[in-house]
Design a protein that fits this description.
2 domains, four-stranded antiparallel beta sheet, 4 helices, about 20% strand
């Protein structure tokens, strides 16, 4: 149920929608505030590696990288599948008598 602070989700969290203007196009995304326990040493190491200065930025950047890595893996898997699907056809086109000389 929306209110001035956001939408109350079934799990008790409040979801906030944000809008940004890119040229003449509005982009919408939803932010959810959560409470999690994070190891301070690991967070500090991540911040140093990512070059971030706040906990929020460090966690946000780490999540972006994790999502990007997953998208990259999925794209690479699709490319591999496409290549593997065509192997039989490519092998059939090889002039094997000439290939073994």
């Amino acid at each position: 149920m929306p209110n001035r602070r956001g939408t109350l989700l079934p799990n008790g969290q409040v979801s906030r929608e944000r809008y940004t203007l890119f040229g003449n196009i509005y982009a919408r995304w939803t932010l959810t505030k959560i409470l999690v326990e994070v190891d301070e040493h690991t967070l500090a190491r991540a911040a140093a590696r990512l070059g971030t200065t706040t906990k929020k930025d460090t966690i946000g950047r780490a999540l972006e990288l994790a999502a990007q890595d997953e998208a990259t893996r999925e794209a690479e898997a699709r490319q591999w599948d496409e290549w593997a699907d065509g192997v039989g056809e490519r092998l059939a086109e090889v002039d094997w008598d000439h290939a073994w000389r």
